[in-house]
Amino acid sequence: MQNYETSVVVVGAGPVGLTAALDLASRGIDVIVIETRHAGEPPNVKCNHVSARSMEVFRRLGIVTKLRDAGLPADFPNDCSYRTTATGIELARIVIPSRATRYTATDGPDTWWPTPEPPHRINQIYLEPILFASAVANPKITILSRTEMVHFDQDLSGVSVDAREIDTDRAFTIRCRFLIGCDGGRSLTRKLIGAAFVGTPIIQRVQSTLIDAPDLKTLMQPHTPAWMVLSLNPRRTGTVVAIDGHDRWLIHNHLKPDEPEFDTVDRDWAIRTILGVGPDFVYRVVSKEDWVGRRLVADRFRDRRAFICGDAAHLWMPYAGYGMNAGIADAVSLCWMLAAHLNGWADVGLLDAYEAERQPITEQVSRFAMEHAIASIGQRAAVPASIEEDSEAGAEARATVGRAAYELNVKQYCCAGLNFGYFYDRSPAIAYDGETAPSYTMGDFTPSTVPGARMPHIWLKDGRSVFDAMGPGYTLLRYDPACDVTDLLEAAVRNSVSLTLIELSPDEAGPERPVEGLLLVRPDYHIAWRGHHAPSDPEALVHRLTGRAVPSHPQPAGKRAAAHALSGERA
């Protein structure tokens, strides 16, 4: 019986699991990924959007260009169009650039992103193969396809994973230091660590169907093409997503509260009503993709050496496209900490920050999504009977519904707040200084340098994003050359901490130039510490940020720091 040894086992080779593996490998950590599907087997058509924060991750991993070149045709508008039916009267349109103009567009609500990598509309069937190919080509990553995890046990030094080859029934063991469960909503990892989902188990059922309909694009030609078309009429409301920009479409039929089962509504009738086509329209069902919208967050994200990310840790309505993207954020948050520990420059105590940071954020985002879902359900239920009338009343109804649809949904399709506004306010590995980070909504945020917030993006004089210049570990940004950081750099060396110094000139600081002379930024671009000058006790700061001296009760933002040494003595 062949057994394996590795540093980290990742359970699940979906986008979250593959991103975790690629991130760890980029930091020099060897990984084994367990996946029940055949190698390269295509996924279901689930996620249709990759957020700006996720695209920043893929930029760092060196695969962002491949992702930009995949998906819809380069000139296909990524707009969201609201119509009476998919082939009917347009009520409103949220303009979103095609991938050909994604970096250069300046008009519309989706072009002001403070990042080198704005979002990308791409279905998971195109995204996942790129991630899989990148993982297969990486010598640090081993993917065991058609393999399932059966059980795992932990001890003081590692995890023993019992696995089985599905096709041969051969059992074997993988010995690793840590395990990450990215194994979906039915996660065995979650069950084995004793975690349970808490929240709202059913918000709405959606009858979804993937179809081939070569003639649909022609029937929709009176309007400019759109990535997503939402049909609003009193008979049936639903969503039509362009998958390849030609023949393939995903139809979401939003079931009503009095329609409790997926087969309550005739699928063919619903599709034709949403599309606005008659019985002579020809299409082919490729697959049924029915799903239940929920709001569930696990009550714990970790048990000692085992962690959960993505759908294993949280499930919610896919509004703002942030289900998969939140999972990718989980993975990146966890993996830089794991790598720091495995590479010897952080204590195991740093790993306590993962659950402390990610669980509250996913709880908050899940509520954003649920509140938006409830508002959308109410809006769909209130479509007036006159909306398709060729009359003054019909025109007024269309204007009212279109305006309301735009105002409600622009914040989810152009969700800068969810990308850049969230902050960690109760982490044991962030040196807070008493100031509270600005609040944010799904659509809006205020850039901030408060510890725990995301560092505001800037462009360097040489044309690079500041993110491209940052090191693999912590990065110290010095805005004031008068700040002597010798002692802090030496403390990092003494503790074998990865710390990169970047000098910034005044014209590189951008409009959000901090009043502090120094910002210490983590690998996930969140601010760990700031100060007008170097800390008086740099050793204590280094210990705090690497888990060597984590306080038993981390001091939250909004309360005055007791130890000036950890706050740069902000007065």
List the helices and strands and how they pair.
Layout: E1 4-5, E2 8-11, H1 15-26, E3 31-34, H2 52-60, H3 64-68, E4 80-83, E5 90-94, H4 124-136, E6 141-144, E7 147-154, E8 159-165, E9 171-176, E10 178-181, H5 188-192, E11 197-212, H6 216-219, E12 228-231, E13 238-242, E14 248-254, H7 267-275, E15 284-288, E16 291-298, E17 302-303, E18 306-308, E19 314-316, H8 322-342, H9 352-381, H10 392-413, H11 416-421, H12 466-469, E20 474-478, H13 486-494, E21 499-503, E22 518-521, E23 527-531, H14 538-545
Parallel strand pairs: 1-9, 2-3, 2-10, 3-6, 4-12, 10-18, 20-21
Antiparallel strand pairs: 4-5, 7-8, 8-9, 11-14, 11-15, 11-16, 12-13, 13-14, 16-19, 17-18, 20-22, 22-23
Helix pairs in contact: 1-4, 1-8, 8-9, 9-10
What does this structure look like?
The chain has 571 residues and is α/β, with parallel strands linked by helices. It is 27% helix and 21% strand. It has helices at 15-26, 52-60, 64-68, 124-136, 188-192, 216-219, 267-275, 322-342, 352-381, 392-413, 416-421, 466-469, 486-494, 538-545, and strands at residues 4-5, 8-11, 31-34, 80-83, 90-94, 141-144, 147-154, 159-165, 171-176, 178-181, 197-212, 228-231, 238-242, 248-254, 284-288, 291-298, 302-303, 306-308, 314-316, 474-478, 499-503, 518-521, 527-531. The strands form four sheets. Strands 4, 5, 11, 12, 13, 14, 15, 16 and 19 form a nine-stranded mixed β-sheet that branches. Strands 6-3-2-10-18-17 form a six-stranded mixed β-sheet.
